[in-house]
Amino acid sequence: MQPQAAPARSRQLIVRERRRYNKWVGSQTLEDYALRYTAEKARKYSSFRVANTAFGAISFLACEAIGATLTLAYGFANAATAIALVCALMFFIGLPIARYAARFGLDIDLLTRGAGFGYMGSTITSLIYASFTFLLLAIEASIMSGALHLLFRIPLWLGHIISALLVIPIAIYGIRMISRVQLATQPVWLILQFAPFVFLLMSGGREMAGWTHFPGRQGAADGSLDPMHFAICASTLLSLLPQIGEQADYLRFLPDSRKIGRWRWWTALLTTGPGWVFMGGIKLMAGSFLAYFALNHGLSEASAAEPAEMFFVVFREMLGSPLVALVLTGVFVITCQLKINVTNAYAGSIAWSNFFSRLTHAHPGRVVWLVFNVLLALLLMQVGILHVIETVLVLYANFAVAWIGALTADLVINKRLGLSPASIEFKRAHLYDINPVGVGAMAASIIVSTAAFIGTLGPMAQALSPFVGLAVAFAMAPLIAWLTQGRYYIARNADGLSTRAEQFCSICENSFERSDMALCPAYNGPICSLCCTLDARCHDVCKTNSRFNEQVTQLLSRFLPQRWLSGEYSGTGQFVGTFLLFNLVIVSLLGFIYLQYVAASPGDAEVVGHALMIVFFALLVVTGISAWLLVLAQHSRQAAEQETRHQTAMLMDEIEAHEKTDAALQKAKELAESANEAKSRYIVGMSHEIRSPLNAILGYAQLLERGTARPENAIQVIRRSAGHLSNLVDGLLDISKIESGILRLSRDKVPFAEFLDQMADMFRMQASAKGIEFRYARPELLPAAVNTDQKRLRQILINLLSNAIKYTRDGHVGLAVRYPSSQVAEFEVSDSGIGIRPEDLESIFKPFERGGMPGIQGVPGVGLGLTITKVLVQIMGGEIAVRSTPGQGSLFSVRLYLSEASAGSVSTERRRIVGYLGPRVTVLMADDDPAHRGLMEGVLRPLGINLFAASDGLGGLELASECNPHLVMLDIAMPGMSGWEVAETLRALEAPQPKIMMVSANAHDYSPGGDGNAVHDAFLVKPIDVDTLLERLGSLLGLRWIYEGEEPASEPPPALNASERPPLSARPFIDELVRLGRIGHVRGIEAKLKEMQSQVPESDAFAQRLLSLVAGFDMKGYTQLLDSVREEAGSDA
């Protein structure tokens, strides 16, 4: 029954000028809460003051004028009966309107919105109500002008101006000033209102009998009741029905019944709400009697119908002094008209504000509409509204009863039957533009009553046309509500709004009660009902299918093809609708003029009709052009709005992108600043970490130079210090490798128990040196070996144990190991040190972060150990956790999967290499560091390796062409050509290509090589480990190392198969091949063997055997094989 709110499709920004305007509008309305819900805090007046203000609005002398006019025209019987019946009817119709207005704090317009008419549907009723206010203002001010003319002989045209403009200074200040004026003038009005009747009753009431039998100008001679005349009287009186709207405008300030009590609340409501008809009925009867009284005292019928004249006559009779009577008449008429005219002007300003604010989404201020309403009334006064009062009121009554009838039917019938919501929803954000219940019932009522008014339904129906319209409205409202199942009352539910009693409007920045607020998706915040009304940019994104054009399209889609409702046909449809509306208004006005002229001069009907027909067709052209202009301007505006929305959306997207970029830049800036701070801490810590081992290296190096230190001890200290520096650099490189994703794990067979015992022995000594107990626990039964990366596992344990010892002053440090059957090893490193704060348990794993415990800055370190440890554990598929209590110690636990290694050789302690088997190999080294070149000479040449060294890449290429190396070791960063460029050049050579090993400090360029695609076969990062270098070199060249303490085993000369033995014709090549083998000239050997193959094809198998030995660098086997061939040749000879 109630559609859900549509999701927000856009977000509007609130510019400064818009907020300033809405604030100004809000301040214009907060005095008397015009255009909006009357807040609880605004209902501060007492029930008596509110009721007294509303009661003062009944002082209008139009009642006397209407009662006098009807009596003089149709007689007492018809007028009195109509007054009694219509007053009773208006009481029952006005009661629910007054009750709901006072209960919910709503004026008549807001009440109409929620009670069956919808947001834009009530715009029509606002126009009807505004027409009532300036129509009644014109009538009342005309009566006042007559009094001014009678009292001061002021011309009527000037009196009209004075009477109209006099109310502006009072009504401009709203209910506060109006209530003061009503309170001050109430005694004067009541005394002068009832004094004449007290006098007449005391004088015996001689006129009463004649009055009750007065037949009137058109009535029956015997003064009896005539149905037709009664109907005319009743229809005229029914035009006063909208007066309940003015009463409701005051009653909305009535305090809640729970504050003042139900008895006082209902008393104030009944007496001044629908109860206005009691005082109004008295005044109607008073006007009827005083007209008859004045007529009997010599006044003409026209003069007797004017309130100023009739009261002047009775005051003159009562006081006996024409002058005093004239003064009292002036005071009385001016007081009465001032009281009602400020009400008419005030109510009209609210009605016009409501009307135009919805159509234009703008509010120039209630003062503008106050002046506008007064000027309209002044215009009617100048054209003589009193001369056609009867006809005007009957015509107006048809519209008034259509509105009020449909409204009352919804409040009385629909709500009782559950066809409409129990509460009154008045906010634009929750309403359909058109509710067919009220609008449909009102339209049906106006059509039927107008048809009756022009006589199509007969004379009696013509006389009773307002009653016909009232009956239609009462019948149609519940019928339409039943047919539509009440689904057009609420367009969306009031969900998402805060439950706070006071809400803050996101546009005007004023605070309002929750009942006056709605949640606006266009602005992503709460919005007050008035700011919602004034907004022209949101296009009702908060609800779906609720706008007037959407509702019309939805209705027409049931009867017309869909293509007629879109594209080019939509403009035509809008033109037809606008054109018909314009001409309907024109026809109504011309029709009214025609009826007035024909009633005054029936003989001129044909001439008047012909003239008005010409006027209509002339205006038809004007309205057609105007309609097209309006439609095209509307389409142009919509296109401009659509383009603006598109451009705005693009700008908003761009702004959002800039905001994201700015946020990213800000975050990057903060990260950079944080990195700078970390770098500063890192430099300080790194300086300490580097200086300590450097101090030992430099110090012992100086002692060695002076010959004052034992070489063995000095070398051990220097080696340990250099190892410390190497590990420090390796840690930094590990972080870099981890960040770049190039860290690789190896799979080693590690003797688990021996590995753990070595770690324990290492740190037991460190703990003992510091005076700390070292606790070590492991299972007795452990696998002989496990598969893991030995270097990384050692690095993890070293980092954790080093930290535990560093941050423990006294107590203990422990290492506990468990290896359950799941093959998941568990390592626990505990200490009784300073501990870690709870807020630092996560940050200590970040680079350069060491926590904030007191005294931690005095401990050497850079804050990388735990970072590397955590990342290594994660890369190895494990878990790391920490528990700590500040001041008591910490416990780090690591879980790693260490599978048991299969049986086989396990890595053991490395032995010293002293040489290798086979022919001598040639190694070329290119490095710009002379120290490194000297190191390599000291390592390789003692092993029998021919080493050639160059200081740059170009020199290395020249040496390579001369010595034909088996392996080339290249640095990367060298003068001229880089190591990579040299490697690429070597690979491009057609000659036999050597193995290439990159040996460089450029760890970022690390690539293992040897995959067939890379230009190199291996990569070692400086500083190098000599054993690792020799291991890699032996692997690349296929060398069989001779270890210290071993004797090289003598190998028997290789035997030749019969097919491999060389023919006699190949014997001349043997000596040269032997000579080339002695000097290791591989390329020369290859060239000589090719020559032998070409000259002696039968020696191909023999040549292939020799080439295979040379390709494997087995020069010793090559020489032995040739020697055996020569020996065989000598024996054969």
UniProtKB/TrEMBL annotation:
What keywords are annotated for this sequence in UniProt? Answer: Kinase, Membrane, Phosphoprotein, Transferase, Transmembrane, Transmembrane helix
Q: What is its EC number?
A: 2.7.13.3
Question: What SUPFAM superfamilies does this protein map onto?
Answer: ATPase domain of HSP90 chaperone/DNA topoisomerase II/histidine kinase, CheY-like, Homodimeric domain of signal transducing histidine kinase
- PROSITE patterns for the chain: HIS_KIN (PS50109), RESPONSE_REGULATORY (PS50110)
Q: Could you give a GO molecular-function term held by this entry?
A: phosphorelay sensor kinase activity
UniProt modified residues of type 4-aspartylphosphate: D971
Superkingdom of this entry's organism? Bacteria
Residue stretches making up the Histidine kinase domain: 685-900
Q: Which reaction does it catalyse?
A: ATP + protein L-histidine = ADP + protein N-phospho-L-histidine
Q: Does the record carry Kinase as a key word?
A: yes
The record's listing under PANTHER family reads:
TWO-COMPONENT HISTIDINE PROTEIN KINASE
Protein name (record) = histidine kinase
Q: Which organism is it from?
A: Solimonas fluminis
High-level lineage: Bacteria, Pseudomonadati, Pseudomonadota, Gammaproteobacteria, Nevskiales
